[in-house]
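Good day; I would like, with your permission, to put a structural problem before you. What I wish to show you is a protein chain and, alongside it, a tokenised description of its three-dimensional fold. Please examine both parts with care and let me know of anything in them that strikes you as inconsistent. Thank you for your consideration; the sequence and its tokens are set out here:

***
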Amino acid sequence: MRETEIIDYAKRLLDAHGKEAEREAAQKARKYSEKNDPEQAGTWRKIRSAIGELRSSSP
């Protein structure tokens, strides 16, 4: 997934889940890690990180 797609998905997840968005992304990353899918787990870690950055840059 490209960086622009990750940021877009992070924004949509943040809009949909609010302050629970990071936890939602972390749960997805953990789920894919447990399923031995490192690519998807890594994508969800990047989405979680992007959510954190978006939240910290909001007024």
Q: What stands out?
A: Residues 3-57 form one domain.
